Amino acid sequence: MLNEISDKLTGVGKAVDSLDPIPATQMPRGYGGTAILWKKHLDSIISPLTIGNERIQGIEVTSDPNLIILSVYLPCKGSSQHLSDFQDCIAQLHEIVSTYQQSHQIIIGGDFNEDIVNGPTSQRKTCVNDFMKEHDFETKYNGSTFIHSNGCDTTAIDYFIFQNLYKHTVLEISKLDIISNVSDHYPIKLILQYHHPVKQINSSNTSVKCKIKWDKVDTQLYESLIASEISDSKPTIETIEDVTNAFKNLNQIIVKSTKAAAPAIKMGKKDLNYK
C-alpha cells in the first residue's frame, strides 16, 4: 500500500499487529505501525533493512558516512505488559545501534509514547534515557506533540534522537502546525546536512565525443537539411509542453543535419607488433 501512495515515492513499513493471532473476522490488520517513505530518484542509494521487530523500521542510506534511519512506534501504556514490551524495543534498538555505530551515522525518530525529556520519572523514561546516555544520543524538545481528543495538547511523545558525534549535521528539528493534519500527533521535521559521494563513471561505458570540424562541414547541405526538416515538422505551439517538445525536436534536427553534413570521423588504430 505504501508504494501506491504516489508514483514518485517508495516506501517500507510494518504493522504492529502483523504477528498477532488475529482471527479472519477481525481482518484487515493495521492497528498501528511505522513506515519510511522516500523519493524514487533516491532508490539507488537507499536499502531497506530487515532489522528490529514489528515496531522498528530501518533503512540504510549510502552517504559519507553511511546513514541508518530508524522509524519507531514504541508501545503505549494500555496493556498490562506495556513495560516489558517497551523494554524489549529499547533492547533491540541497543543491539542495532551497537552493530552500526562505529561505521554509520544513526538517527532514530518516531512515536516514543513517553515524554523522555520533561515527563515524570518512570521506568519507561529511565529506560530510554539510559539507552541515550550509553550511546551518547541527544534530542531536542519541541513542546507538546500529542493532541488529546478534547483538542488540547497533552504531552510530548514524538522525537528525533541523534548521536552527539554528528550533532553538527542536524540543522533543524521543529514541530509543524499544518492545518490539514488529521492525525492526533503534530508532525516533527528534521533537516540533516547530508553528503552523497559522486558516483564514479565506468570508463568502459563511456563513448568518445569528437569535436566537429566546422571548416570541413558542407555548410550548404547543412543549411538545406535544417530548413527542410523544420519545414516538414510544422509544430503547433499552444502550451508550455509544446514549447519544450519543439526545442527537443529542433535539437534532434540539428544533430541529424550535423551528422549528415560533417565528414566521417576516422578513428586511428595503433600498429600492433606481434612477436
UniProtKB/TrEMBL annotation:
Domain Endonuclease/exonuclease/phosphatase: 68-188
One Pfam match: Exo_endo_phos_2
Transmembrane region(s): none
Source organism superkingdom: Eukaryota
GO molecular function annotation: catalytic activity
Entry-linked InterPro entries: Endo/exonu/phosph_ase_sf, Endo/exonuclease/phosphatase
Protein name: Endonuclease/exonuclease/phosphatase domain-containing protein
Organism: Mytilus edulis (Blue mussel)
